[in-house]
Design the sequence.
């Protein structure tokens, strides 16, 4: 099946046009899915990588996939995080692009400007859509501004409760969100490009061993100082970029900061390191832990539902409240076991899980409209 981007850059897309009319989709056709996301390349984060990988895999499963991304739109820096830019589509652009596809169903991946306009239009035109709760924005916002978490959860609850299904990376997260009043929560099994991390060259550093690695966004919510403050032998490596990088580099000069890396470059570092240390307490899943395992790298982390789901009962990492002890204990873990567990988080398995949820949502005969 084909994969297409809906063009936002053509001049005709910016002209005033008649109100779009949605034609009834032919349900004998392959599933025509429009994936809407504010997170896309050149952003480097778990959400953007998830959907870029998914966009390559779904067409192989017979899906007629169309993408509505920030490409072609004017953007502005995100407050408190200028490295991430928020697309600002003209209000009529998103409705016309959805109408041009005439999708059987829409998946709205993010709660940003593009996702919000898509949610409003799908609600108004009664087009079924699914969403996914990727990020704990209430906690992230509260860490930066004096905004109560309950206000943010209420806003997100409105956004997601209009969907036929809202996906969560773990069963535990789905249950937690139900407790916040979120409806129709379902578990989407996440996956990674396992071959990208399992095979390839190994990075070389003239640094004392062992090498303890963190990879991810360098921001306050990632709790990176909990890793950098640890009394560990060898060298701490930090891969990634973000608003906290300058402060962290100045405060922790003995750590080696590698900057933003592509997935292929990050794979070389995963394969070279001795332990992956993940200090975040707020991630809904922690995709980088699955990537590290696929490369044969043991993981040390704080207790989290994401880690338990990724480890799946195997001794491929150490979960504990004492992160230093967890990191030291992880040095003794068999790397072959890590590769085995990492390989189980395949893109195909994740794509089939996603597709099953979307098809069930499309088939639903009674949808909420709020």
Sequence:
């Amino acid at each position: 099946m084909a994969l297409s981007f809906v063009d936002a850059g053509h001049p005709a897309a910016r002209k005033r046009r008649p109100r779009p009319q949605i034609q009834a989709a032919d349900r004998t056709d392959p599933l025509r899915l429009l994936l809407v996301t504010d997170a896309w390349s050149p952003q480097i984060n778990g959400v953007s990588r998830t959907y870029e990988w998914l966009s390559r895999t779904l067409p192989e499963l017979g899906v007629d996939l169309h993408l509505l991304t920030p490409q072609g739109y004017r953007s502005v820096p995100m407050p408190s995080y200028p490295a991430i830019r928020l697309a600002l589509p003209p209000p009529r652009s998103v409705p016309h692009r959805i109408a041009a596809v005439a999708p059987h169903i829409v998946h709205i991946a993010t709660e940003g400007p593009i996702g919000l306009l898509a949610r409003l239009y799908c609600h108004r035109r009664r087009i079924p859509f699914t969403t996914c709760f990727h990020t704990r924005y209430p906690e992230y916002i509260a860490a930066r501004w004096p905004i109560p978490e309950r206000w943010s959860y209420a806003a997100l609850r409105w956004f997601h409760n209009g969907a036929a299904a809202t996906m969560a990376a773990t069963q535990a997260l789905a249950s937690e969100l139900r407790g916040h009043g979120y409806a129709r929560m379902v578990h989407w099994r996440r996956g990674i490009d396992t071959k990208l991390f399992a095979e390839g060259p190994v990075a070389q550093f003239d640094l004392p061993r062992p090498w303890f690695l963190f990879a991810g966004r360098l921001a306050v919510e990632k709790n990176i100082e909990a890793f950098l403050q640890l009394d560990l032998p060898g060298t701490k490596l930090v891969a990634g970029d973000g608003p906290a990088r300058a402060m962290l580099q100045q405060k922790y000069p003995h750590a080696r900061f590698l900057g933003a890396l592509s997935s292929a470059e990050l794979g070389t570092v995963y394969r070279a390191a001795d332990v992956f240390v993940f200090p975040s307490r707020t991630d809904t899943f922690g995709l980088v832990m699955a990537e590290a395992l696929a490369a044969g790298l043991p993981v040390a982390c704080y207790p989290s539902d994401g880690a338990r789901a990724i480890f799946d009962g195997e001794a491929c990492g150490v979960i504990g409240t004492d992160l230093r002890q967890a990191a030291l204990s992880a040095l003794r873990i068999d790397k072959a076991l890590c590769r085995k567990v990492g390989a189980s988080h395949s893109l195909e398995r994740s794509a089939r899980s996603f597709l099953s949820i979307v098809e069930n949502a499309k088939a639903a005969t009674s949808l909420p409209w709020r």
